[in-house]
Model the fold of this input.
Amino acid sequence: MSTSGGPVPPRSRGAMRIPGALWFAAVAWIGLALVELYAAADSLAANRLDSEADRVATQLGPDAVSGPPAVASTAVISILAAVSTVVLTAALLTGRGWPRFVLVGLGLFVAVVFAAGGTWHAVAAFVLVTLGAFAMVLPSAHRFLAVPDAR
Done:
């Protein structure tokens, strides 16, 4: 068994190709961003007044029915998380190692928010976070992300 005795040589531009495992992780993270945007759209659509509430309000008065909140918090969290996920995925593909930790943490946070809301988006988010995290710890992806940049 051989071990490397010296420091890891810096990566030059184009010297190392992005491994397939990292591309798989990127697809999982972009899939998570799409789920987050879909959850935001669902949350905003559910925020509108429905016809049943309008009917009850006309029969019993406007005080009988409370209106929806001005801004759906799940929608705001989902939109911010989707934008952050895309930016962090781009940073991951450029060879930066730190976004892998932030992506997993952000993905788990969003999955818990979806689970607290009781939507199906939680299951999709947990599956995509698991796939993305697993792909990032495969040896080829880990090796690519462990090599320092040539700056």
